[in-house]
């Protein structure tokens, strides 16, 4: 019997139901073994990410109710250093990518608006190579020095 593919745990932090449905449909179409957890605001995401087990991937909206994506990462301190975190937004804002990188998150992606584009974005998210831990630690330390 061939070994089973490990299950990928994906935490989607998204307050827009249409975007969450596009992502779920793309996961189904890609036939990826995954466990999807959806949270609809930044405050609850910060609380969830303080509890084990941490997900393999966090795909988080930049603009969320109660706390935005960067505020969630800031609230967690360095807790997410070992997790692939991707921030995304429907709003085109080049400064958002800079803000995300400042707290050690890369990539920052624009949300897809079609199912085809969702497949492309999700494929990229699932095959990400995590940033080297040293980069993320350095970004976090720089951020801490500004506060």
TrEMBL record:
Which Pfam families did the record assign? Response_reg
4-aspartylphosphate modified-residue sites: 61
Domain annotation Response regulatory: ranges: 9-126
Report the transmembrane regions from the record: none
Q: Name one GO biological process term.
A: phosphorelay signal transduction system
User: Mind telling me what this protein is named?
Assistant: CheY chemotaxis protein or a CheY-like REC (Receiver) domain
Q: Which domain of life is it from?
A: Bacteria
Keywords assigned by UniProt, alphabetized = Phosphoprotein
């Amino acid at each position: 019997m061939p070994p089973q593919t490990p299950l990928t745990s994906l935490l989607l932090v998204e307050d827009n139901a249409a975007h969450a449905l596009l992502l779920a449909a793309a996961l189904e179409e890609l036939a990826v073994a995954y466990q999807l957890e959806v949270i609809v605001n930044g405050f609850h995401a910060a609380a969830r990410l303080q509890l084990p087990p941490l997900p393999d991937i966090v795909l988080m909206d930049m603009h969320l109710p109660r706390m935005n994506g960067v505020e969630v990462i800031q609230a967690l301190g360095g807790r997410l250093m070992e997790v692939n975190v991707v921030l995304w937004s429907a709003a085109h804002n080049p400064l958002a990518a800079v803000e995300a990188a400042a707290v050690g998150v890369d990539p920052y992606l624009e949300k897809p608006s079609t199912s085809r584009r969702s497949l492309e974005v999700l494929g990229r998210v699932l095959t990400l190579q995590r940033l080297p831990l040293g980069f993320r630690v350095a970004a976090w330390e720089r951020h801490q020095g500004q506060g």
